[in-house]
Structure formats: structure tokens, C-alpha cells
Amino acid sequence: MTPESSPRIAAFFDLDKTVIARSSALAFTRPFFDGGLLTRRAMLKAAVAQLQFLLASAEADQVEKLRKHVTDMCTGWDAAAVRDIVSETLDDIVRPVIFDEAAEIISQHREAGHEIVLISASGIEMVEPIGELLGVDVVRASRMRIVDGRYSGELDFYCYGENKAVAMRELAAERGYDLSRSYAYSDSSTDIPMLDAVGHPTVVNPDKTLRAHALTRGWEALDFVSPTAPGWSSHPAVTRTALCATGISAVAAAALIYRHRHGRSTRSAAA
């Protein structure tokens, strides 16, 4: 077999909490508000969703809640306007929250001649520009259905769970990757199919379930510290930083979370 026809090696990276320290799906909340796509109340709800995402483990039910929030939020938006806003604000929004360790590992794979693949459950409108910023070779992400230039609220492809592994196998067939020699990085137990698909899986800032699974499988585990950009910290004060990123006060968000958690029981007691 000639070098040109030899199977290639890929390094597959999940995005949220693996390469960047926040939810890419909600990272552009403030620019979307400034661009007229979000109301102030919707921006507040997005800030709460971002906070819950940062503080909670990435279990399936939490990811599903985030997915529903994002698809509901985006329904009716002009798809071209979304891409324009992401492009205009990408550097300010994303670069400060890239994990230094992730950037270094990506660089090491690139130097080794491996192809870099960013694979995420977030929308392609966010993930593709982030991939360009990171200099990756290939991006796979969720795709919302567009009807007459606007998001319908339905998904044409949900790049999540087993679907990530399906996308990886399709890419391997298309681009000649040898998955048995390839690498994958993720923080979430929902990405176990993605990690199982390669010969060299690594868990990054893993949730409790994934950390236990990695231990039983003998997978390497890495813990990245939060980016050192102003306003970000691994301390519980991340509550404030998540909300500052969207321009929402912590008091307002805390009140909304309290009402959400306790309103139903209060109404029941009063009945």
C-alpha cells in the first residue's frame, strides 16, 4: 500500500465543555438580542439555560432540555441573519472561552498529520464558523430545517448520541479514516458511542457517569481548567460569568430559576 492510499488518522472533538467552556448553542445570546432576534425575556431564559448547562452534568435529560430550549428559541428566525451575526461576533464570543489545553492538543494532532474533526450537537450555523476559527478540517453538527429562509423548529439531522458515531463512520468511509487508529475527545456520557468508535478515546472534564465508564474501560481522562480570559473561572462564581456574557443580572436569573423550581409546588399547596 502506497503512502497516498494508506488509511488516514482523525482526531474527533466534541465542542461544548471539551473545546470551549460553555454552550455554543447559547453563546451568541447577547448578539442575537442586539440583532433583534431575541426579546429581553427570551434572553433571560437563555442565560438561565446557559447557567444550568455550565453547572449540571451533561446527562441525556439535560442535553434534551437544552436542545428543546434552543429549537423553540430559534423557530421563525431568519437563517441568513443568524449566520451573519455569528460571523460578525465570533472572535469576541468564542476565542476567550477556548480551553488552552484543547487548543494545544489540536495543534499536536495537526503536527502529527492527523485530520481534525469537530463534531457537535449544536447547530451547524454556530459550529462551522467555530471550526474555521480553530482551523479544523471537517465539521459535523445538527441541522435545523429551513423553510422559506426561516427555521421551522424541526431538525433535519440531530448530531447527538449514536448519530455522532454514525457520522464518524460515514466520514471514515468518505475520507479514508482508520477509526481503530483515530482519536476522540468528549466530556459527556451521551458521547460514549462516539468514544467507542475509535481506538484512542479520551474523556475531558467528564460527567460522573462518563468518568466511571472511562475508569472501567481504562480510557485516559483529562481535566481542563477554565480559560484564563477575563470573566471566566472554574469557581462556583461561574454563575456570574455565564450571566455577564449575556448581559443579564444574577438576581433576575436566580428569581426565574426559583419560580421555575418552586412555583408548581406553591400552587399545589394553595389549591
Keywords:
single chain; 271 residues; alpha/beta; 16% strand; globular
The SSE string, one letter per element, is EHHHHHEHEEHEHEHEHH
The CATH topology assignment is Rossmann fold
Give the class-level CATH name.
Alpha Beta
Indicate the low-confidence ranges by residue numbers.
Answer: 50-55, 229-271
Radius of gyration: 19 Å
Sheet-strand content, in percent, reads: 15-25%
Number of strands: 7
Average pLDDT, rounded to a whole number, is: 78
**CATH superfamily membership:** HAD superfamily/HAD-like
Q: Total domains, how many?
A: 1
> Looking at the structure, what is the overall shape?
globular
Q: What is the share of helical residues?
A: 40-55%
Structural class: alpha/beta
- Order of strands across the biggest sheet? 4-3-2-1-5-6-7
Distance between the termini: 76 Å
Characterize the largest beta sheet: strand count, sense, and whether it forms a barrel.
7 strands, mixed
Second CATH tier, the architecture: 3-Layer(aba) Sandwich
What's the helix count?
A: 11
Oligomer: single chain
Explain what you see:
The chain is an alpha/beta fold and 271 residues long. The protein has one domain: Rossmann fold, CATH 3.40.50.1000. The longest helix is centred in the last third of the chain and has 21 residues. The N and C termini lie far apart (76 Å).
